[in-house]
Design a protein that fits this description.
It is built from four helices and three strands; from the N terminus they run H-E-E-H-E-H-H. The protein has one domain. By secondary structure, it is of the alpha+beta class. Strand 1 and strand 2 form a beta hairpin. Strands 1-2-3 form a three-stranded antiparallel β-sheet. The protein is 38% helix and 37% strand.
Length: 102
């Protein structure tokens, strides 16, 4: 795991906390805590190629994948396994904010 700057520390201490939120107001937020596992791969992960096509379009995604697919390309899948999950949503928690936003 020496080639990925974030992987060695996560291998030593795999405890993580993540926050995923929506853009529109009022926000809806998912909070996760748990451990991650790291799996290294030669080449690009299939889901990374799929994401490139969604983000750049089919043609741009294909170019991105072609440029990244080299013999020296290595990737790592960092997979969280949540031990705790929580949500923050402001529509019912603080309806005054939700009404003022739309």
């Amino acid at each position: 795991m020496g080639t990925y700057p974030r992987c060695p520390p996560l291998g030593i201490r795999p405890d993580v906390a993540s926050t995923i939120g929506t853009g529109p107001q009022p926000p809806e937020v998912l909070l996760l805590r748990g451990k991650v596992t790291i799996t290294e791969f030669g080449g690009m992960l299939p889901e990374q190629a799929e994401a490139a096509c969604r983000f750049f379009g089919e043609e741009g995604g294909a170019r991105y994948v072609a440029e990244a697919e080299r013999a020296e390309t290595r990737t790592a899948r960092i997979a969280p396994r949540p031990a705790w999950a929580g949500t923050l949503e402001f529509r019912t928690r603080n309806p005054g904010i939700a009404r003022s936003q739309g």
